[in-house]
Amino acid sequence: MSFSFLDTKLILFAAISIFLLTLLRGRQRQAIFLALNVSFIWFFVLGSVGTLSTIIFCLAGYVLVRMHQELHWLRISHTLPLLVGIFLYMRNYEILHWMLPSSVLTSMLSTVGLSFLFFRIIHVMVDAKGRMLGKLDFLTYVNYCLNFTTFVMGPIMRYQDYYDQWNGSKKAIELSFEAHLDAVIRILFGLVKAYLLAQLFYTYALKPDTYVTDLHPVMLMLQMYCFFFYLYLNFSGYCDVVIGIGSLLGVRPPENFNMPFIAQNISDFWLRQHRSLTLWLTDYVFSPAYKWGLGNTVLSAHPLAAGNMAILLTMLVSGIWHGTTVGFLFFGLVHGIFLAIYHTWDHFLTGHLGKKRAIQLRRNWLARAVGIILTFNAASFAFIFFQLDTQHLLGSLNRLVG
Amino acid sequence: MKNDRITITRITLKLVLVMALLAVLMLLSTSEVDFVYTGF
Fold first, then answer.
1. What is the pLDDT along chain A (402 residues), one digit of tens a residue?
2. Cβ of A379 under 8 Å from any chain B Cβ?
3. Is B37 in contact with A195 (Cβ distance < 8 A)?
4. How far apart are CA A74 and CA A92, in angstroms?
5. Which of B18, B33, B36 is facing A184, going by the closest CB pair?
6. Statement to judge: residues A248 and A285 lie in one domain
7. Interface test with B, best of A192, A325, A326 (most B CBs within 10 A)
8. Do the domain assignments include residue A172?
9. Ramachandran category for residue A26: left, alpha or beta (phi over 0 → left; psi -120 to 50 → alpha)
10. Alpha-helical regions (H) of B1-40
11. Chain B: residue nearest A237 by CA?
12. Cβ contact (<8 Å) for A234 and B35?
């Protein structure tokens, strides 16, 4: 999908939204925000059918959340498969084509933003079950889910953070001219990143229709690196724009990037790249899976193995969430393997040297430089699976084996 | 007094930066970008 932030209508829409939400208070502000969110999704992103199906998905989430608040016997494991099933069906996952006849599948739905909405709903559902939300207001929930600044590609904001900022108990931005000017500069810098710098890197970046085995290794590395920078500038530029707009209208989304190309290890990489997703996965996939592993009779004696299993599962979920094709499954798997290797290495390093000397080693400039180079190359390599389409990915793997 | 001057200078520079960025974006106004995380 390509919509343009430089479209006059969209710029006007953002300006009107900021003006109205700054001016209004109470239920009026809530109702106008809902109208703005639905209008944005309808006119700029999904069209009528996509908007309607998205709203139904959002409302189904609300029903499940309320059920978890009211029915104490109901477990997340009872309702989650239903939500996951609807999500996979609506997103038209490639794997479903292998399992189901095409007559029952849908390919007409536009589902931009659905992955992010799906994770927001699960977060609210789990936190509501854990009594971490308090009373859930319907309009606040719907506006949180459909918030136009974070709807299309995140960052994944937490409900509690949204609620506190919406109600004014937490400030989105300082009430000074300079703070507002900084938000405007951030929007403009984001646009320059996405519309100018990212495009420069895209010229040389790896393309989806490439057989990587046909490329000279040096050329492949160059294209991998360019794709890494392209993706960073494209996505972080987008995040800069929405964080700037969110700051001005009173609900600032969380930070999502912090120079991932200088990460010292793969774990550090995921705290710098798409950070809001990493924190979500940690809370709602890794932690429960690790806890389950430690409680398991076999795995409880091997916490390292339990940790690695939880890491692999988490990154598989991450891969499947990222996209509907098999390449994203590989992308998650490769990152899971990298993280498990790093986790094991770190475990033995700390065990062998002791905590104090392991920390000293990590602070050593040479170790840091080696860590940055290794991580940058590992992350760039994994992006091959992210970028290639299924035909060219499987073709490249075939040629590599054959 | 000195602090006020520093603040005014800083804000002026930021306003100049806004103008410069706007000028760059005016040149790009016809370009279209595919945002990666919406495309798959």
1. 556 888 888 999 999 999 999 999 999 999 999 999 999 999 999 999 999 999 999 999 999 999 999 999 999 999 999 999 999 889 888 778 878 887 777 666 778 899 999 999 999 999 999 999 888 999 999 999 999 999 999 999 999 999 999 999 999 999 999 999 999 999 999 999 999 999 999 999 999 999 999 999 999 999 999 999 999 999 999 999 999 999 999 999 999 999 999 999 999 999 999 999 999 999 999 999 999 999 988 888 999 999 999 999 999 999 999 988 899 999 999 999 999 999 999 999 999 999 999 999 989 999 999 999 999 999 999 999 999 999 999 999 999 987
2. no
3. no
4. 28
5. B18
6. no
7. A192
8. no
9. left
10. 2-27
11. B35
12. yes
Write out chain A residues lying below 8 Å of B14, CB-based: 178, 181-182, 185
What values do phi and psi take at A27, rounded to 5? Answer: -65, -30
Chain B residue numbers touching A153 (CB-CB < 8 A) = 35, 37-38
CA nearest to B17 within chain A: A185
User: And the tokens for A197?
Assistant: 């710098």
Chain B nearest-CA residue for A155: B37
In whole angstroms, what is the distance from residue B39 CA to residue A336 CA? 23
State yes or no: cis peptide before A155, omega within 30 of 0. Answer: yes
Would you call A4 and B17 a contact, using CB atoms and an 8 Å cutoff? no
Taking a contact as any Cβ pair under 8 Å apart, which residues of chain A between 309 and 338 contact chain B?
322-325, 328
**Residues A238, A205 share a domain:** yes
Q: Determine the Cα–Cα distance for residues A312 and A334; give it in Å rounded to an integer.
A: 9
Domain boundary among A257, A282, A309: A257
Which of A239, A257, A275 finishes a domain? Answer: A257
Q: Between chains, do A185 and B38 touch, taking CB under 8 Å as contact?
A: no
ipTM: 0.91
| Residue A3 placed within a domain | no
Amino acid at A173: I
For the question of whether the overall pTM of this predicted structure is more than 0.90, the answer is: yes
Distance CA A365, CA A70 (A): 55
Scan for tokens 């709602």, then name that residue: A284
